Amino acid sequence: MRTWEECRAFFSQFREQYHTTGSILPSSRALARALTRPLRASKPPRRILEVGPGTGAVTREIVRCLRPGDQLDIVEINPKFAAIVEQRFAHEKDFHAKRGLVRIICAPIQQLPGAAWYDFMISGIPLNNFSLELVDSIFQSYQRLLQPEGVLSYFEYLAIRQMKMAFADAEERRRLQALSDYLGRKIRRYQFAADVVLLNIPPAVARHFCFAPSGVNPDERSR
Ligand SMILES: C[S@@+](CC[C@H](N)C(=O)[O-])C[C@H]1O[C@@H](n2cnc3c(N)ncnc32)[C@H](O)[C@@H]1O
């Protein structure tokens, strides 16, 4: 898929499904590299879940990391994005080579069954667009599906909540403030590393979480 085709497909879903798509462009290679940093530092076999692949910008980087014995599940709420990712695995050489290690599931992550299954989870869900209740149910799914010492990597755009707040009405400001407080608590409790990525539109931060009791440093674990 050429870059301009990918951007066009992404933008069309931004217009059709603004709420769940959450941005106008797919992530840059730099952001995809930052999100896959813990995965690249680990050894197979690994169970990996990508949440919200969109057009596959981060998937491409995950696929590069896949080795025999790995299993990648991809869960996507938007059927049009899921179909694009299917097509990439069917037709693009790098994707196709790893097809046997991959499952694509068209559903919201909250409906994925199971518990304590994945070693790595890489999520593109646009949390800032959702109600606090929905964000909480998404985090509950992250925690349920990850192994206790598994790693969640996700991103948010830099200072986006503060910018939105400047133009929001009172009710929207309350929602964004509640979300900031909620995510701030999660970050203080579970984040073990973060990468600021300026080479992305807009600039972003990739956050890496481990839900294991404190004292475990996933960077030092040998996998
Ligand atoms: C900001 S886009 C990120 C796309 C891609 N990961 C990237 O970085 O370019 C958000 C993606 O999350 C998907 N999404 C939103 N809510 C979801 C949910 N509850 N479960 C699964 N996917 C979801 C959207 O359809 C979209 O593909």
Alpha carbon gyration radius: 17 Å
Query: What is the CATH superfamily?
Result: Vaccinia Virus protein VP39
Q: Can you tell me the CATH architecture?
A: 3-Layer(aba) Sandwich
What would the average pLDDT be, to the nearest integer? 93
The residue ranges in which pLDDT falls below 50 over 5 or more consecutive positions are none
Q: Based on helices, strands and strand pairing, what is the structural class?
A: alpha/beta
Which ligands accompany this protein? S-adenosylmethionine
Number-wise, the strands total: 7
Largest sheet: 7 strands, mixed
Label the overall shape.
globular
How many DSSP helices? 10
Overall number of structural domains: 1
Q: Strand-residue fraction?
A: 15-25%
Q: Find the CATH topology.
A: Rossmann fold
CATH C-level label: Alpha Beta
Residues in helices, as a percent range = 40-55%
The SSE string, one letter per element, is HHHHEHEHHEEHEHHEE
End-to-end Cα distance, whole Å, is: 33 Å
Query: How do the strands of the widest beta sheet line up side by side?
Result: 3-2-1-4-5-7-6
